Automatic annotation (TrEMBL):
Superkingdom per UniProt: Bacteria
Natural source organism: Shewanella piezotolerans (strain WP3 / JCM 13877)
Keyword Membrane in record: yes
Pfam family, one: MFS_1
Claim: Protein biosynthesis is one of the keywords in the record: no
Annotated protein name in UniProt: Permease, putative
Length: 282
């Protein structure tokens, strides 16, 4: 028997809301650390190389866990796999906020693993459930990632000030700021709970193993790969060090965090415009 129209509309609304809330958690745990890098280095006595690893480790986790994300999706189902990604991000945020270097680095790796799973499977879910709105959903998805990045970067320093005003001593003020980001995946998990009744595999064309051996001989493939690699290289340099550079140029930590956040939002808005403009040409 077909479901009532109101039930289908409600389910679709919760699905879309869940997708958008998951998107908020896919960059904010990484971008939120940039404005706090100086505080973390001073507190934990980290070198510049060690501090840089805080944004390098998620990339290494992406490279390691992305190839197995589709296997998890096929075995557990898309909905369950995405819930797993949110759980990993939440656990990683808790461990990273313990306040010591071991927790900081190990939590960052766990966060990267959770984000890697969602990075692979969320586009597949959008392709399956919103086949006529792929460009629109993708543009909103990217915009929400930018919004999450902007919020985490802009509020990073104000949250450390809040920790000081509240005399929170259980963890350092920067750890309190990082822990506050847990609100994104926790809300996403509650909204995503109704989707766990489903157990569906990723769309076939995104999960079937294929060696794609011909790509190794394709000049265009290498050009695109190099372009995307350089783009990510520059992006994560900015995420790590832009606030520190701005502070050295005379801006306050608050101003540096806000500028950093605005740039993240503009990046998301630019991608949103690009996807919307190209539409079916993607």
């Amino acid at each position: 028997m077909a479901k009532p129209l109101s039930s289908r509309l409600t389910g679709g609304t919760f699905l879309m809301l869940g997708v958008l809330l998951i998107s908020l958690s896919l960059r904010s745990p990484i971008t939120g650390i940039g404005p706090l890098l100086d505080l973390i280095r001073l507190e934990l006595n980290l070198s510049a190389t060690q501090a840089g690893m805080l944004t390098t480790l998620p990339l290494l986790a992406f490279a390691f866990f992305s190839p197995i994300a589709s296997r998890i999706g096929r075995k557990q189902g898309l909905e369950q796999a995405l819930m797993l990604s949110l759980i990993l991000v939440t656990i990683g945020l808790v461990i990273r906020s313990i306040g010591n270097s071991v927790g900081l680095f190990s939590g960052t790796v766990i966060i990267g693993a959770g984000i890697a799973i969602a990075n692979v499977l969320l586009p597949s879910l959008m392709k399956r459930d919103f086949p006529t709105k792929i460009a629109t959903m993708t543009s909103i998805y990217v915009l929400m990632m930018g919004a999450g990045s902007a919020l985490s970067a802009s509020l990073a320093i104000p949250l450390t000030d809040l920790a000081s005003r509240l005399s929170i001593s259980a963890v350092p003020s920067w750890a309190f700021s990082l822990a506050s980001l847990i609100i994104f995946p926790v809300i996403a998990m509650f909204v995503w709970l109704p989707q766990l009744r489903s157990h569906s595999a990723p769309s076939k064309n995104s999960t079937e193993p294929d060696s794609h051996s011909y790509l190794w001989r394709n000049v265009d493939a290498w050009s695109i790969t190099l372009f995307l690699a350089l783009n990510s290289f520059l992006m994560y340099i900015f995420i790590s060090w832009l606030p520190t550079i701005l502070v050295e140029l005379g801006y306050s930590h608050h101003q540096a965090g806000v500028i950093h956040g605005v740039l993240q939002l503009l990046h998301g808005r630019t991608c949103d415009y690009t996807y919307s403009s190209n539409g079916k040409d993607q």
